[in-house]
Amino acid sequence: MSRHPELGNIDRSRTLRFVFDGREYHGHPGDTLASALLANGVRRVGTSTLLGRPRGIFSAGAEEPNAVVQIEEPFPEPMVLATTTELYDGLVARSLSGRGRLADRPDPCRYDAVHAHCDVLVVGAGPAGAAAARAAESTGARVIIADSGPPAADRTRAYSAPDPHGLGTGPQTRVLARTTVVGYYDDNYLVAVERRTAHLGLDAPPDLARERVWRIRAKRVVLATGAHERPIAFAGNDLPGVMLAGSARTYLHRYGVLPGHRAVVFTTNDSAYATALDLAAAGLTIAAIADSRPEPAQDWADRARAAGIEVLAGQLVTEARGDGEVASVLVGTRELPADLLLVSGGWNPVVHLFSQSGGTLRYDERLGALVPGESPQAVEVVGAAGGDLGHGSGEPLWFVPAGDYSRHFVDLQRDVTVADVWRATGAGLTSVEHVKRYTTAGTAHDQGKTSGALTSALVAHATGVAPGGAGVTTFRAPYLPVSFAALAGRDRGALHDPVRITALHDWHAARGALFENVGQWRRPWYYPRAGEDMAAAVLRECRAAREHVAAMDASTLGKIDVIGPDAAEFLDRLYTNLMSSLAVGSIRYGVMCRPDGMVFDDGTAIRLAEDHYLITTTTGNAAAVLDWMEEWLQTEWPDLRVTCTSVTEQWATVALVGPGSRAVLGDLAPGLAVDRAGFPFMTWRETEVAGIPARVCRISFSGELAYEINVSSWYGLSLWEAVMSRDVTPYGTETMHVLRAEKGYPIVGQDTDGTTTPQDLGMEWIVSKKKPDFLGKRSFTRRDTARPDRRRLVGLLPRDPEALLPEGAALLAGDRMAGHVTSSYPSAALGRTFALALVSGTHTTLTTRSGVAADVTSSVLYDPGNTRRDGAETETAAPPAGGFEAPVRRSPLAGFEAEFDGLRLAEAPFLTQVNVRTGTPLTPPGTAVTDGETTTVWLGPDEWLTVGPGAARGVDVSAQRTAIRITGPRARDLLAHGCALDLHPDVFPPGRCAQTLLARTQIILIAESDGFLVLVRASFAAYLGAWLLDAATEF
Amino acid sequence: MLLIPCPWCGARDEVEFHYGGQAHVAYPEDPSALSDEQWGRYLFFRENPEGDFAERWSHSAGCRRWFNVVRDTRSNRIKHVYLPGEPRPVTP
Ligand SMILES: [Zn+2]
């Protein structure tokens, strides 16, 4: 084993040092780890996982079953193919036995993903792929060429490399080198992984994404994925020194490596002759060519003999012999000394991607291989991948007959032998899929790239069906293993999932609030003071709310504007109770059920005008409720004249709770009559609070006197600061949960689970008897829904007043399961612990499985007479604290501005935005028309958004979204990191608009002359801003 | 990743859509007139054909409009797109 003095596309002027299994070696730029190991005479690169047998480098590419190594430096990476790992200085790797080792620390590298669109995607830049790419380029098409190898410029002398001057020169061509297409999905959607910096080793720039996932939507796909050589099963065919013949030729020409000194060639076809001749010319001794065909192709045989190579026609290699590596080869009864045995059992077109496209495969008897048939997608296959191998083949030979098949290896990674396959077929298995599961053949890291066809042929042989008749296992994506890091892309750490925050978030964080995730929202959980644990903080917050005054940020509640002449009728159909009878100026609590009668959501409806309601939803269900309303309106009740608009982020909401709340509100809202008679329970008022226009609702989710103050979220922080200036205790979601549970108010999704009716919650009063129908009504009389033994909401008081029942705990009546705990807390007001539970049947006491006993009570444990909700009859108002600061308007991304090469990002704050619903089109679909300072943006067939000061009639949503302007020549490139739309200027020119996804948020995207305006909901703005800056790291 | 043709916005990636199950399952005219079994059929029973299936989709991350498609469940090929309230197109 040595280097050829001239051949190979390696840079001999530079030496790279690397370590394998603790020993240092040298290689050159252009080497793979495998070629450098072979050049250094390293033959053993692994130990088989089951039998512990030595294994050597078997191939030169992605089909490699043996040379699966562990990279240790620069960062631990398990199960990497030495045959495709480009060598770099400082590489440290070691051999494996089956399994690698995951890093015990987070991967410091960056990973990302990009969307791309093209007319033609060419997969593979070999001769056939290059020709197809050139043809496509000549038509002016948008072309993407993806090839697993390094860029053409790095391999100008490479054997079989495409002409570097003819490829990738089209004006709309993108060449993706080191990029493997790993999946082919519906509608010509292909996923590729680009390895961008791993080949740079320790010199990889930390700012560059190490790997990039390309999500490509192609109008047409050309697969030029080549062919993999097939092995033949014979005794000892797993010894180091046994190699696929074509791979040896690749090592010679691409890397200048002679993978042995004296070789025997074992072939069924012409292709191995070229290998033998090239190796002989390069100085390697070819001991013989054993050709399974009785009559080898005359011209090849003549050329071999002319080169002094003995051709053994009709002869088979029966055994590779050696201790740890090949030392001799048995051909028939002749034993030929050799350190290399080159095998060619024919070639399999690489049909993986074609099969994934939905394409059928056909067994070609001449090739003994599967070739592409028909695909439902726009794809064509060229070159060897289509079966055009360009050389003569013979009768396929799968295995060499023997008495003992226990050393005829089929799957080298799984140590599956021909004997194992016979055992499976002998046990009666006739399907390849079953044999795969029985033997594990084809289930390893390489997914059977070299073993799949062989397994199938063995099954066909054993079961007596025609070759190809046994079928094949499914070619599933990914074609090659893909790291989780690449799949995660930039959706890691803080960007893992959008974090939605309210306008008050920074205040909460600065005051040391601990946060709770509610859906994607981050809500203050509690605000511990120095030395307080959670229990102490929550007890203090609860006490403040029940005895003094406390406030909570309730901005996350979903809010939906429901407008139109039929709004009342619409809500009557959705809610279980009557909403049409609600007076303007009043508020009503309501429950929505699905048609099956199960509780879906609850909240309040505020009647703003005859034809205008504002409804609130639970925090986690806002989007689902809006979808639900649209579904019924659009698909069942299109005759109802109603529109629904989300205004969740338009409003900041502060819940002001406690006997002292009236005084605080009176102080902050001098123009508002706050007395009991002037502002009754379940009504709302328009006023100014702390100098900010506000809608104040007198509702209570705690049983105490309470208000919800709603202001434009631009002024939310000013309102909150004014409230806090009045010695009001901030409280979080935990206290909110305790207060409502003490009153027996259920939380949808906590005390209900999708099998809970309003009656189960003891809320018969909310189910209208008057309405002829509403969603859920019919189900209440279904036999199962009306069953008397359904679980119903009850209260529980543990016998031990300190015992806290675990939420979710099963409750037993004697030894029978009676229900489960849904909510459980310590209570300041009750001076003890308590719980809510869903329980079937009537019981006085229930126990948990661990034996904690609790008495069953009413679910309303605090103030069952509702004496506290209206506050004191007369109260001594606290002396006014003397005014408040002038309100300050704040935007969600205040100060967001960044500049990169060819790219500028900045918030465009405080744009006036109005959601307009009309049957008269304002702009054509998909367009945004600017008239003076106001842009009218198409959102849907009857929906527009006006952005700018121009007057429009509709719902004010100015604070619902903020805007980010992305300008500069690379604005499109940045958006392509997270937007699947084709933003090519021909497709999405200035004046186009779309509602779509950017990263993991919904946006309204408007193309402008110098870039884009992105409208994003205020709660997602911080996430999207952070995401954009992260995506711009490479700019 | 299916490319689903929204009748209003054009073809978009599947992730922008919300699946709505079988189309043409109308809310009964008078639920109170139905037997438990008839009501149960409306609530819980849906087709699951191998082949053409008329189903509902909502462009939830886009224009928020509901529409119907006829999709071949074997190939995922979408053969027709039509609006709610329109009859199912006849597939040859
Ligand atoms: Zn749409």
UniProtKB/TrEMBL annotation, chain A:
Q: Does Nucleotide-binding appear among the keywords? A: no
Entry annotated with the keyword Oxidoreductase: yes
Q: Where is the segment annotated Disordered?
A: 863-886
Domain (SoxA A3) spans 406-490
Keywords carried by this UniProt record:
Oxidoreductase
Which molecular function term from Gene Ontology is one that the record holds? oxidoreductase activity
User: What range(s) does the GCVT N-terminal domain occupy?
Assistant: 504-771
Among Pfam families, the record links this protein to: Fer2_4, GCV_T, GCV_T_C, Pyr_redox_2, SO_alpha_A3, SoxG
Residues of the FAD/NAD(P)-binding domain: 119-361
Domain Aminomethyltransferase C-terminal, chain residue ranges per copy: 791-863
Q: Where are the transmembrane segments?
A: none
Domain of life of the organism encoding this protein: Bacteria
**So what family is this one in?**
Belongs to the GcvT family.
Protein name per the record: Sarcosine oxidase subunit alpha
Q: Which gene name belongs to this protein?
A: soxA
